[in-house]
């Protein structure tokens, strides 16, 4: 049986802080999360777009809620599961 990986784009908003390196630090921490394949800093409502791959929806949920949202400075995420 072939297992298909779940792909998702995670939109990440970072809060403002007193640290000048907050964006750099958050990007470095996100890049350490298992399943993160790419991360882009963007302009607009969100600060980062993250391409993430997971084995299933449960793992995807855990990676987003426990790992990415748990990073200091991350205040909001929105997950877009790639369907086709």
List the helices and strands and how they pair.
Blueprint: E1 6-14, H1 22-31, E2 36-41, E3 48-54, H2 57-68, E4 74-81
Antiparallel strand pairs: 1-3, 1-4, 2-3
Notes on the structure:
The protein has 84 residues and is α+β, with helices and mostly antiparallel strands. The protein has a single domain (6-81), classed as 2-Layer Sandwich (Alpha-Beta Plaits), CATH 3.30.70. It has two helices and four strands; from the N terminus they run E-H-E-E-H-E. It has helices spanning 22-31, 57-68, and strands at 6-14, 36-41, 48-54, 74-81. Strands 2-3-1-4 form a four-stranded antiparallel beta sheet. The longest helix is centred in the C-terminal third of the chain and has 12 residues, at 57-68. It is elongated, with a radius of gyration of 13 Å. It starts with 5 loop residues before the first strand and ends with a strand. The relative contact order is 0.32. The model has no long low-confidence stretch (mean pLDDT 92).
List keywords for this structure.
84 residues, four-stranded antiparallel β-sheet, Alpha-Beta Plaits, 4 strands, single chain, alpha+beta
**Domains counted in the coordinates: how many?**
1
* Poorly predicted parts: none
Global shape = elongated
Structural class: alpha+beta
SSE succession: EHEEHE
From the 3D structure, determine the CATH topology: Alpha-Beta Plaits
Separate helix tally: 2
- The fourth-level CATH homologous superfamily is Lrp/AsnC effector binding domain/regulation of amino acid metabolism (RAM) domain
Proportion of β residues? 35-45%
Strand element count: 4
């Amino acid at each position: 049986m072939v297992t298909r990986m779940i792909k998702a784009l995670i939109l990440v908003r970072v809060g403002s802080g007193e640290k000048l390196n907050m964006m750099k630090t958050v990007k470095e921490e996100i890049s350490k999360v298992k399943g993160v394949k790419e991360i882009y800093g963007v302009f607009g409502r969100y600060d980062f777009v993250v391409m993430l791959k997971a084995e299933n929806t449960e793992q995807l949920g855990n990676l987003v809620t426990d790992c990415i949202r748990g990073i200091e400075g991350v205040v909001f995420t929105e997950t877009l599961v790639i369907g086709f």
